[in-house]
Amino acid sequence: MTSNLLMMNKWDMSEIKVDDRGLKAYLNIKPVIVPKSSGRNSTLSLRRQHVSVVERFINKLMVTGHKGKKHEITSDHNIGRYLSVYNAVKEAFEIIESKIKKNPVQVLVTAIENSAMYEEVAAYRMGGTIARKAVIVSPRRRIDMALRFMCQGIFRQSFGKKTKLANVIANELIAIYNNDSNTMAIRERQRLEREADGAR
Description:
Blueprint: E1 6-7, E2 11-12, H1 53-62, H2 82-100, H3 104-115, E3 119-126, E4 129-136, H4 139-158, H5 165-177, H6 184-198
Antiparallel strand pairs: 1-2, 3-4
């Protein structure tokens, strides 16, 4: 029954593949017409994996999260209606489909895989000093951080610019899909993995 549903009534979800085995159980690619659960899964943080990956992307675009200790990106710039961001994402998906002739949801999933880090640095107190150690990142955090980096990159490219949000989303997703190191998501992943390599 659900196999006939199309994401946003346009794109087939049955052909979406998650190549990263670590993320396969945590990326929800089940077909839904409208990616909006109205907070049904927000009572427990561990239920995020039940939310459609497209809905998680839209939610993260609305509130991209802080960057750095000085809160370079503040939440007061991240306001608006869900429908506005939904329409921008839908238009961006149409642009992606027309540009590279691929399912845009697959492009989003591959972009998440490309920007999901494997290792990061954890700091802990040892005696009177703070030691740093490389740790493996859990699949949930990998997805959360990948979405954060992607959306913060989109925010930086679009905030205060004349370029339409849909065009920025499309260009950024295509660049991350192609593993372009000029994007913020790929740069941040490489930086964090380099730090972890140095702390090993």
